[in-house]
């Protein structure tokens, strides 16, 4: 849904500013910003719902085992009566299947959250190191600094060696 919203915004932006305008998103299908947070919070909510289901089912039935016979003393029974549960084995099997499925969903959701957070951390660290490497490379090369500033010095005033970089002078 969020991807369709982004694509619609891109389309409206192109109609308004022309085909050669700057794009709003680099890739509309990538999980960035609000979409990433929405997806992670949805996974957390899903984990909460599944865990609540497993917990309540365990406490309502005092485990995941259905008894085949219950002694009933409640109204409208006049005295203690034997109540038989229909098909207790089938109910037990389906209940265990639902619990195992919920536990598998919880486990997969936890792994997906760990993957998403790890991927985002790796991207941040990689971006930080790349930006730092670019700054360090341009600062440590005095000739690049001289060329980038387009300094025009006369032959008698120009130094034989390039000026030291700021990083070298500080350390």
Automatic annotation (TrEMBL):
<keyword id="KW-0812">Transmembrane</keyword>
<comment type="function">
    <text>One gap junction consists of a cluster of closely packed pairs of transmembrane channels, the connexons, through which materials of low MW diffuse from one cell to a neighboring cell.</text>
</comment>
<dbReference type="InterPro" id="IPR038359">
    <property type="entry name" value="Connexin_N_sf"/>
</dbReference>
<keyword id="KW-0303">Gap junction</keyword>
<feature type="domain" description="Connexin cysteine-rich">
    <location>
        <begin position="49"/>
        <end position="116"/>
    </location>
</feature>
<feature type="transmembrane region" description="Helical">
    <location>
        <begin position="36"/>
        <end position="58"/>
    </location>
</feature>
<comment type="similarity">
    <text>Belongs to the connexin family.</text>
</comment>
<dbReference type="InterPro" id="IPR017990">
    <property type="entry name" value="Connexin_CS"/>
</dbReference>
<keyword id="KW-0965">Cell junction</keyword>
<protein>
    <recommendedName>
        <fullName>Gap junction protein</fullName>
    </recommendedName>
</protein>
<dbReference type="GO" id="GO:0005922">
    <property type="term" value="C:connexin complex"/>
</dbReference>
<dbReference type="InterPro" id="IPR019570">
    <property type="entry name" value="Connexin_CCC"/>
</dbReference>
<dbReference type="GO" id="GO:0005243">
    <property type="term" value="F:gap junction channel activity"/>
</dbReference>
<keyword id="KW-1133">Transmembrane helix</keyword>
<dbReference type="Pfam" id="PF00029">
    <property type="entry name" value="Connexin"/>
</dbReference>
<keyword id="KW-1003">Cell membrane</keyword>
<dbReference type="GO" id="GO:0007267">
    <property type="term" value="P:cell-cell signaling"/>
</dbReference>
<dbReference type="InterPro" id="IPR013092">
    <property type="entry name" value="Connexin_N"/>
</dbReference>
<comment type="subunit">
    <text>A connexon is composed of a hexamer of connexins.</text>
</comment>
<feature type="transmembrane region" description="Helical">
    <location>
        <begin position="93"/>
        <end position="117"/>
    </location>
</feature>
<dbReference type="InterPro" id="IPR000500">
    <property type="entry name" value="Connexin"/>
</dbReference>
<keyword id="KW-0472">Membrane</keyword>
